[in-house]
Design brief:
The complex is a heterodimer of chains A (529) and B (218).
Chain A: H1 2-7, H2 18-22, H3 27-55, H4 66-102, H5 110-129, H6 146-149, H7 154-181, H8 194-226, H9 239-273, H10 280-294, H11 309-337, H12 346-369, H13 371-377, H14 381-411, H15 417-443, H16 458-488
Helix pairs in contact in A: 3-4, 3-5, 3-16, 4-7, 4-8, 4-9, 4-14, 5-7, 7-8, 8-9, 8-10, 9-10, 9-11, 9-12, 9-14, 10-11, 11-12, 12-14, 12-15, 14-15, 14-16, 15-16
Chain B: H1 2-8, H2 21-56, H3 58-66, H4 70-95, H5 102-130, H6 148-181, H7 191-215
The chains are: A mainly alpha (529), B mainly alpha (218).
């Protein structure tokens, strides 16, 4: 480290020029490249979200008609799910910090890692290209039979999702092999940071679930181009089979999104409580537990799709079971906070925001798992609110927490705390203003996905729309804070937060090869007190 | 690093983030096996779909299978089994220091793959000739079950996806064959050949399951 401090060489300035980035095999640079791409897609998806909320500000068509609304809704969902939340944490922060966390010089397959970025970009650009040809209107779930009949560019979009799936598989495969084989001497599986456990569990899901989405999407393409009829009742097939296949991937996929977020929360809470994490083993294994159970709960999306009652009961029970490992995590984080020396830095604020919002998202998830309640809530705004409490209140809060936590390490610059806190206040309050009314709207029976609603729902929709502008403002402030820090922030020390994991032992930003001397690990990751 | 290699008498330079060539080999092999897991799950889903529809319409599937020629399927099974054996022998020759034998074995494997595809081509064109197309293109007149087209959807999707994998495997074998002929592999370094070999065996294994459920269920 000392040598690097003297020479001032790090992964950013060791090589120069655009080509040195586009051809880089360095996991840190690939992580940064993912960050730029995902950041841009996040803005795109966010603009779609604000357009939707603006349309819903008043009853009746205002800024767009029904067809445009369907398209905007589809792109909001598809962009946010496939291009932001799924790659967000693993491909950006995971790429950057997994090798640093386990004391490795790189991931196991650096060329494959770069390839996965290019594959992801190819899929994303293909998906975005449909905006300029024939905008699709199926919703991000591509449900048959409508997706077979609609005249829009479904095939292109589905192929794009397939390609992004390949990228996700390659990243997951790379991370599993890295975690298995590249740990530094003494870095046993019982000593890896909890972020690594979370990434590891996520990767298992990516490798085992994504291929099923792959074949499902290929069958949908074959359905549209060759008319094979496997999902088409008119030809002897079954459209509900598509739902089964789709959710066999897409339910584990929501854990692909949330597990790495939980990993970030474990890191941030222990660091800013100045306290050894409570229940390391329980948190680590609960990640694997969530991953395992997640494969057997997909049927809870189909309580009203003609599934047998026996199947409904079994899926309901298994879904409730997910609450157990999730609650284990929540209680362990809370126990870590107990009597900790808590510092309310921006990452910690976002992490505490996560705990608050994710608790609501999780409990409403249990409500939706109950068959009787779900029949009432199915396809209403209650589901929309639950999903956003988990995915935005959970994943995006954690992503923001992680971005601010690791920004000093990634960029070598400190951000301005006051502005970052303003960003947190607006996203957190705005989030509740946006989505809490949607629970009420849903329980009153307002259906999701429609561009219009009855006048009785108008006042709550107005509140929700105002909240969405607050979220938008909060994220823009956050983005500006990050960009300002990168360009003109004061230099960051190697360990600004007093963290104990390995990435804080190297310079900020880290040198090209991460560690000048391979670290030898003799203790666990969170030796505070 | 290079001094380590010289000391152990090997030509292969392992990547900088590994401790040794063995370390690199172990990691690569894990990566290949994980990739195979994705292949199995991808085919697994369509096997599941097959199982569902077969349990709904067993006699229709039996009628569909009766339109296939089990002898062609059997020959193809044998061809793939032979190719798996030659693939294994190619790796075995490299491992045991008889690297010169590897290239001929790989060529035989490649020829078997090509033979498989030729037989598949003959089968497909025969079906097309009779109008036994998948789904909505189905024009065959003498069907006893009105939804027989669905069987051929499964037949073409499953064997087609498998055929695409055979073609991919042949491409990969060509790649390692060229590298073998250039003398890039020996008993110290043969990871790509082994990786391609694992892929080829998995494709073979999938066919072992496809053959009975498509041809022999009648």
């Amino acid at each position: 480290m000392a040598a690097h401090v003297q020479t001032g060489k790090n992964y950013i300035n060791e090589f120069a020029g655009l080509k040195s980035w586009l051809c880089s095999l360095d996991h840190k640079r690939i992580g940064v490249m993912y960050a730029i791409a995902v950041g841009i897609f996040f803005l795109v998806g966010g603009i779609f979200a604000l357009l939707l909320r603006t349309e819903l500000f008043s009853a009746g068509p205002t800024i767009m008609g029904a067809n445009t609304y369907n398209q905007v809704m589809t792109y909001h969902g598809a962009v946010m799910v496939f291009m932001v939340i799924i790659p967000g944490i693993p491909a950006v922060l995971g790429n950057f910090f997994l090798p640093l966390h386990i004391g490795a010089k790189d991931v196991a397959f650096p060329r494959l890692n770069l390839l996965s970025w290019y594959v992801f970009m190819a899929g994303s650009i293909l998906a975005i290209s449909t905006l300029f040809t024939s905008k699709i209107d199926t919703g991000w779930t591509f449900y048959t039979p409508y997706s077979i009949r609609t005249s829009t560019a479904t095939v292109t979009m589905v192929v794009a999702a397939f390609i992004m799936g390949i990228s996700s598989i390659l990243t997951g495969l790379n991370f599993i092999a890295t975690t298995h084989t590249l740990r530094a001497p003494g870095m046993t599986m019982g000593r890896i940071p909890l972020f690594v456990w979370a990434l590891y569990s996520t990767s298992i899901l990516q490798v085992l679930a994504t291929p099923v989405l792959g074949i499902t999407l290929l069958l949908l393409v074959a359905e549209r181009t060759l008319g094979i009829g496997i999902f088409d009742a008119a030809l002897g097939g079954d459209p509900v089979l598509f739902q089964h296949f789709f959710w066999f991937y897409s339910h584990p996929a929501v854990y692909i999104m949330i597990l790495p977020a939980m990993g970030i929360i474990s890191e941030v809470i222990t660091t800013f409580s100045r306290k050894t994490i409570f229940g390391y083993t329980a948190i680590a294994y609960s990640s694997l537990g969530i991953a395992a159970v997640s494969f057997f709960v997909w049927g809870h999306h189909m309580y009203v799709s003609g599934q047998s009652e026996i199947a409904n009961v079994i899926f309901s029970a298994l879904t409730i079971l997910v609450g157990v490992p999730t609650a284990i995590k929540m209680f362990n984080w809370t126990a870590t906070l107990y009597r900790g020396s808590i510092q309310f830095t921006t990452p910690m604020l976002y992490a505490l925001g996560f705990l608050f919002l994710f608790a609501i998202g999780g409990v409403t998830g249990i409500m939706l798992a109950l068959i009787g309640l779900d029949v009432h809530f199915h396809d209403t705004y209650f589901v929309v609110a639950h999903f956003h409490y988990v995915m935005v209140g959970g994943v995006l809060m954690a992503l923001m927490s992680g971005m601010f936590y690791w920004l000093p390490k990634m960029s070598g610059k400190m951000y301005q705390e006051s502005w970052a806190r303003i960003s947190f206040v607006f996203t957190f309050i705005g989030f509740n203003v946006t989505f809490f009314p949607q629970f009420i709207l849903g329980s009153m029976g307002m259906p999701r996905r429609y561009f219009d609603y009855l006048p009785m729902y108008e006042s709550l929709n107005r509140i929700s729309t105002i909240g969405s502008y607050m979220i938008g403002f909060g994220f823009v402030v956050g983005l500006i804070t990050v960009i300002r820090a990168i360009y003109s922030g004061p230099p960051a020390p190697a360990n600004p937060w007093g963290g104990k994991t390995l990435e804080w032992t190297v310079a900020s930003p880290p040198p090209h090869h991460n560690f000048d001397v391979e670290p030898v690990i003799t203790a666990g990751p969170y030796e505070y007190r | 690093m290079s001094t380590d290699n010289k000391a152990m008498g090997r030509k292969h330079h392992f990547a900088h983030h590994f401790r040794s060539a063995e370390h690199e080999y172990e990691s690569a092999k894990q990566g290949i096996w994980l990739f195979m897991a994705t292949e199995i799950l991808m085919f697994g889903a369509i096997f599941a779909a097959y199982a569902i529809f077969h349990s709904l319409y067993p006699s229709m599937f039996a009628e569909g299978a009766s339109h296939l020629d089990w002898r062609m399927g059997f020959i193809n099974t044998c061809v793939l089994l032979v190719s798996s054996w030659t693939m294994a022998m190619a790796i075995q020759s490299l491992q045991s220091g008889k690297g010169k034998n590897a290239a001929p074995y790989l060529i035989v494997t490649l020829l078997c793959g090509a033979g498989f595809m030729v037989i598949k081509y003959l089968e497909y064109t025969h079906k097309f000739h009779l109008g036994l197309y998948p789904g909505k293109w189905f024009t065959y007149e003498g069907a006893q079950h009105s939804n027989l087209a669905l069987y051929f959807s499964f037949y073409f999707v499953m064997s087609g996806l498998h055929g695409i994998h055979v073609l991919l495997g042949m491409g990969l074998i060509t790649w390692v064959l060229i590298r073998t002929m250039r003398g890039e592999f020996d008993e110290h370094y043969y990871t790509p050949v082994e990786g391609v070999g694992i892929f080829w065996h998995i494709i073979d294994l999938i066919w072992i399951y496809l053959f009975p459920i498509l041809y022999l269920i009648g």
